[in-house]
Amino acid sequence: MKIAIVGTGYVGLVTGTCFAEMGTEVICVDVNRSKIENLEKGIIPIYEPGLEELVHKNHQAGRLAFTTDLKLVIDDVDVIFSAVGTPPGEDGSADLKYILEVARTIGQNINKYMLVVTKSTVPVGTAQLVKNVIREELDKRGLKIDFDVASNPEFLKEGAAIKDFMSPDRVVVGVESERAEQLMSKLYHPFLLNNFRVIFMDIPSAEMTKYAANAMLATRISFINDIANLCEIVGADVNMVRKGIGADARIGNKFLYPGCGYGGSCFPKDVKALIKTAQEHNYEMQILKAVEAVNEKQKSILFDKLMNHFNGDLRGKTIACWGLSFKPETDDIREAPAFVLINKILAAGGAVKAYDPIAVEETKKVLGNAITYAKDIYDAVIDSDAILLITEWKEFRLPSWTAMRKLMKSPVLLDGRNIYEKSDLEENGFTYYCIGR
User: Fold this and answer.
1) What is the pLDDT, as a whole number, of residue 92?
2) Contacts by residues 50-57 (CB-CB < 8 Å, ≥ 24 positions apart)
């Protein structure tokens, strides 16, 4: 089987590379010529552990190819995956212009049966729009060519995307025909030999499943953050509470870690899009509106603690920020809490010296010279008045507090992910703040 993946962003490149790794012939398509040229040289546009090696390996083996022109390869493939971006509009709705442009190109150029699979996260009803566009283009050509549209949402965690794709706990596929179901079963069979679990359903349900999954995870994060904030007020320890409720099999312990808010390319965008979809159908997602509000407030919680510690005056203060990406093992800074905190510190007259193992170059594109960039965690704290732990990278877990104290103006640490023990910090002379304890 030979497939095309349109879009070489995070989802498209991981999808294409992993299919190639399992023996499928894959052509990745992107209109960005420089990106395609770099991919052919083995230079990938994103950071994802293990991806660069797999891209190079499969390109060298001839299973993974790259092109800027879908029209040139459309007759050679059996399935086309659409994995282009769906950026949020100003009103929170998903912008489908790239999805529909891919559909238009397919309708203008197919000459045989084609299965068109939407891999991007899209609102319910998108597959029908794609189908309508393809059919309109075929009508303009005066052709009657059979095609199917399917929905195959991705469930990849940044930083663990290769493992998630190669060993999925489930694959969700929305189809309308037996032919499409057979093709998708054949395509995914190598991944699921040990636990064959493709969940077939109707297309609207598949489209909704992706949004519902991300909305549920976002809800758990905002819930535990709300509980954490109340724990501080009433004198409870959220870590104990988390363990207590997580031991209940009906609840479980995943995504119940308090912190300084969620970010990234999925949760904020998908929560907004689901709220907007509901509005378009005259329904109000009251829980998700609260989830969004709690998260926006939570992104400022470390700043509020910082201001309180310094009596509302950050002028002349230098704050060390550990972590810039929205989570470890990625350079993705979209909607990252670090940027809310940094902008607030700068607006209050403070200075920022930041370190992140991976995301510095991406940050420079946004903040430029507004902050100072450190070469490591120790460099970041030199002459600093406080440390903000924002992203829980592994290398931040066990620093030398003795060395840190000697380098800092004042030994203050605000732990935005609750990764440290208060007793350890206080024994080393630090003033320590965390969340929910």
Assistant:
1) 80
2) 50/162, 51/13, 51/14, 51/17, 51/161, 51/162, 54/17, 54/18, 54/20, 54/21, 54/162, 55/13, 55/17, 57/21
